[in-house]
């Protein structure tokens, strides 16, 4: 009963926020006369921005509400071990705008659009990762191949791209934060906000033992001829997807790039804030880049189909249907999950952990760190077992993106690299992902320690109009740090 009242209240606020936003959007549109913004992206921006303004209106004191409207979808998915569909009869069209529809393959997809929530302060991750000490190691000078060959022999040594340092580079960023309107959601385009410092855009990552090949978008697309790159994960995975779209188009309008979302069943369901994901194809090279939202990489299923306020079974041992269904079409897969493994998200989204089709009542998996570890290991194991069946697929698990709340819940440093500029440690700062991929053919995309040095590059408190009392110290400005994650990804393809 209490939960129900809460989200009715939430909807009122969202409505007010939406109305305010529509007015703002009209104003903005007026002031941006001349720039052509596709209807698709503007509605997307509107929705993305609406969630942030609603956040502002709620004006809670909690510092970490960046993912308030976290669940655009909760897709009913296939059995992980048992391929048979779980028997589900007709679902009603539910009130509270939980819309239910059937996809052509006959599995049910649910859109849980009203699941608003607050994010618990992640005390465990509250502080900056310890700044790495300065190294005495020498770096290869850029474009000096003979120098590089002295320190790096590709035959005997695999480059650890995670070890290196940030260096200022006037060739950055790869695209303008004032452009890429079709793919850069405006709340993350810090150039469109009140933020006035942009020095964070002007750095590149220099690995210690090897050179990162220069990213060049046409070469990248040629390399990805007839290939599909899929990102599956949470909002940080989404940021990496938007970043790659901007990098691949150079932030140019690119009307030739086709929206192929429907090929993957990625539609915005009625009442939903956002679609389940996005998919685009570059016609000249037949390259597809897509994102699918799955914040826990687990299958979610409504427990009681006839109850609109039903909780959701979060099946720790079943992978999302989307992944099973389309795996054979992917050539590059980048998974991530991290920030949704907190009790507050489970409560607000009414997620109940299930194992072997039954709710877990007690035991070690009730602990969030254990259950996250369990899921990451389980997912990597499953993916590793699939790789021999999909020889054209290269799979990556991206490590945790660090957040930078100081003890006031702020992140307002604007000076780059105040905590050091180098990572010299051997292993990853994300032990869960590092341990899970060890001994498998799943690659680690280790971005945790290098991103931890960039506390100044978060979205922080800046909004399109004014600033917010609330600091987003989790998501990054774009262009920004996720561009470097993509450089590291592309270097490993
Ligand atoms: C939910 O959606 C239905 C149908 O689309 C609409 O009639 C109703 O007003 C919506 N309710 C809320 C609370 O948004
Ligand atoms: C690391 O190097 C930077 C600049 O090169 C210097 O300012 C800083 O004091 C050094 N830190 C340590 C721990 O040596
Ligand atoms: C595009 O690539 C896919 C494989 O990803 C292939 O099946 C398809 O035939 C290609 N289309 C064209 C027009 O070459
Ligand atoms: C499912 O929800 C409906 C409506 O709230 C209720 O009548 C029914 O008893 C529930 N079924 C189970 C198995 O809990
Ligand atoms: C994570 O899970 C794996 C496999 O289930 C286990 O071997 C490992 O000890 C766990 N690690 C932690 C830190 O719990
Ligand atoms: C960060 O912002 C808060 C709130 O505006 C302010 O109290 C604090 O002094 C600022 N810190 C720095 C280092 O500027």
From TrEMBL:
Location of the Trichome birefringence-like N-terminal domain: 158-211
Keyword annotations: Membrane, Signal-anchor, Transmembrane, Transmembrane helix
Localization in the cell: Membrane
GO molecular function term, any single one: O-acetyltransferase activity
RNA-binding keyword on record: no
Xref: Pfam families: PC-Esterase (PF13839), PMR5N (PF14416)
Matches recorded under PANTHER family: PROTEIN TRICHOME BIREFRINGENCE-LIKE 16, PROTEIN TRICHOME BIREFRINGENCE-LIKE 9-RELATED
Protein name: Protein trichome birefringence-like 14
Organism of provenance: Herrania umbratica
